[in-house]
Amino acid sequence: MKMREALGICGIIACALIAVNAAHTSDSQTGNWTISRSDEPGTVEFSLIISRPGHRSEHESQWPLSTFQGLDVSQSGRQQVHFTIARDAGKFDCEGYLENGEGAGLFHFSADPNYRREMEALGYRDIDADRQFSMAAMDVSLDFARRIQAQKLEGVDTDKLLAFKIHGVTPEFIQGLRAAGLDEHDADQLIAFRIHGVSPEFIRNLRAAGLNETEGDKLVAFRIHGVSPEMIAELHKSGYSPDADALVAMRIHGASPEWVAQLRSVGYDHVELDQLVAFRIHGVSPEFIQKLQGLGYRHPEPDQLIAMRIHGVTPEWIAELKSRGMQNLTIDQLVSMRIHGID
Predict the structure, then answer these.
(1) Residue 254: CA count within 13 A, CB half-sphere
(2) Cα distance between residue 14 and residue 39, in whole Å
(3) pLDDT, tens digit, for every residue of 123-137?
(4) Sign of the dihedral defined by the CA atoms of residues 332, 337, 339, 343, in that order
(5) What are the beta bridge partners of residue 48?
């Protein structure tokens, strides 16, 4: 938008906000709207805002152009507009100004009195004025409520139903999870799945990679820490079959397939999984092992390597001891010297 256009839109919004503040004294369901272009064809960025002392509600997202009855964003120049948005929960009557596809104005929300009764009949209670406004803004329709109810989930109250709509927990998503082998019924878990990207495709890919553990909290942990099907497949190629907890621990501490391959290149073909994690925690790296090998310690046991790092038996310290004539000390002797403070 050009500077002149931007200043014009800002002026429109400022006027709208002044009018909204005056209107709030008589009607809490009056607010202001803004609209701007979207990169996705057939949609716009649209927001509904109610702001009054002690309360602010804002809903902003991409809306399909088909939502707006009576609005034409294709016209150029500045125009006065009036359009409506019809939902099961109520109707938004909007008026204001539009300039080259962007604009702002006022809305008035009229709640549908039948919506609350029908939702309560479905078991969704405590729908006050603010919740009904939010449910209208997010298009929580009666059909959506019925279809979610048909999924036989646990813990779905009015707020969870609204959260489902916000995060995209749809009947189709739930059915997709079940088709992928995960029969999840917990509402909070389903919301966490959508937030962190636990999709039916992700579950299928995990199974294809050889992991059949699909408990909900572990799947979320996988996504949070970056446990991927590709990582699992690579570990299986290396002869490892870690469970879900081990996979998460490996990702947290950086025991990647690439790092495991580096250990193999210095002679450690199959270190136990818990030792791999301990290696990462205590800093037993391929470089550390190579330096020890250069000092004549060809293949210390994994537990010895961990003990050396814990107690500060470094290649540099060993080299200094050798320079002072202390040759051929065993690893156990070196660790014992550090424990007892012998330098």
Answers:
(1) 9
(2) 26
(3) 999 999 999 999 999
(4) negative
(5) 33, 59
